[in-house]
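$ ./design --mode recover --in tokens.txt
reading tokens...
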């Protein structure tokens, strides 16, 4: 049997088992539509695989949305598996503003610790789904997980065969995760944090006066400083953390299960170690760091909050330097 024929047979089996289950979901919940999605974390997208629709609301099979626009992302990050007031719970969402959804639920399909997709339902009216019914849906999602895992593995095999994994995930200078890899990991961890109600934090940082470092020590000297920061982040990071170089002298450290205090402690360790390491290299440098935690910020705004905290840190540093400089020496 050709591999393509085997994949088709597996997909057909997946479809045969999925369609009656989706009909069951609609009957259990009373929602206008039920559907199964797959999540492509590498592409940061979500696709409707199968749907059971009514004339009230239709989800198009095969349609794909950016993960940033996904209703499931809203659900995961908010920790609300089910809502009967989409406009309030997920303000500005596509489901609420474009599709007119009033009710929405999303149960993750998880296998081997990875979130592969979702079992969803939606309605244009307020339809409450009790916890016992949601528990039934979790069992249905569990029954779909292994078949979906096979579909995901086949898709990954096809991408590799077609050379679609050409986009690297590692920064060539520091060996850390690059911007793309960090985004993938952060979205996975944000979703996990929201589902389980755990804290999560992120540090955004850049090297102070990095252009001056390059001017004084040359391009390779600048790279030595970047590599030093990479080494510091690796030494400070726990196994579950994700250090990354986002570009230029911009770095980040993702900290699952970390509250505001823990983020501040880690930021201080990074700053102190980096200062000591670069001084020993003969290229002394310091960091500005912004920290944000879901303790104080919505998960969907975490990176924005960390960037804002970083800019505040740099503004304070500039103001402090200005105040410390004699008036006659200021430019």
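writing sequence...
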């Amino acid at each position: 049997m050709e591999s393509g024929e085997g994949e088709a047979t597996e997909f057909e089996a997946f479809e045969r088992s999925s369609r009656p289950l989706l009909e069951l979901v609609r009957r259990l919940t009373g929602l206008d539509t039920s559907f199964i999605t797959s999540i492509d974390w590498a592409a940061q997208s979500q696709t409707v695989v199968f749907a059971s629709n009514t004339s009230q609301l239709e989800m198009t099979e095969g349609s794909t949305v950016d993960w940033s626009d996904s209703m499931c992302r809203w659900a995961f990050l908010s920790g609300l598996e089910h809502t009967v007031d989409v406009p309030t719970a997920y303000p500005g969402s596509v489901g609420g503003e474009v599709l007119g959804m009033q009710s929405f639920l999303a149960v993750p399909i998880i296998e081997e610790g990875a979130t592969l997709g979702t079992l969803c339902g939606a309605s244009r009216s307020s339809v409450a789904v009790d916890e016992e019914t949601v528990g039934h849906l979790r069992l249905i999602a569990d029954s779909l997980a292994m078949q979906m895992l096979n579909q995901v593995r086949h898709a990954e095999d096809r991408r590799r065969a077609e050379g679609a994994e050409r986009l690297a995930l590692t920064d060539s200078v520091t060996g850390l995760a690059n911007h793309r890899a960090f985004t993938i990991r952060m979205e996975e961890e944000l979703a996990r944090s929201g589902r389980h109600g755990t804290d999560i934090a992120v540090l955004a940082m850049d090297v102070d006066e990095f252009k001056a470092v390059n001017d004084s020590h040359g391009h390779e000297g600048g790279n030595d400083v970047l590599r030093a920061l990479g080494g510091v982040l690796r030494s400070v990071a726990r196994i579950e953390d994700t250090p990354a170089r986002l570009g230029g002298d911009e770095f980040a450290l993702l900290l699952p299960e970390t509250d505001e205090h823990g983020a501040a402690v880690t930021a201080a360790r990074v700053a102190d170690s980096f200062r000591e390491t670069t001084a020993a290299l003969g290229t002394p440098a310091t960091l500005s760091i912004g920290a944000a935690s879901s303790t104080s910020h919505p998960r969907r705004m975490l990176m924005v909050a960390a960037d804002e905290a970083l800019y505040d840190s740099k503004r304070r540093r500039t103001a402090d330097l200005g105040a410390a400089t004699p008036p006659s020496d200021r430019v």
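exit 0
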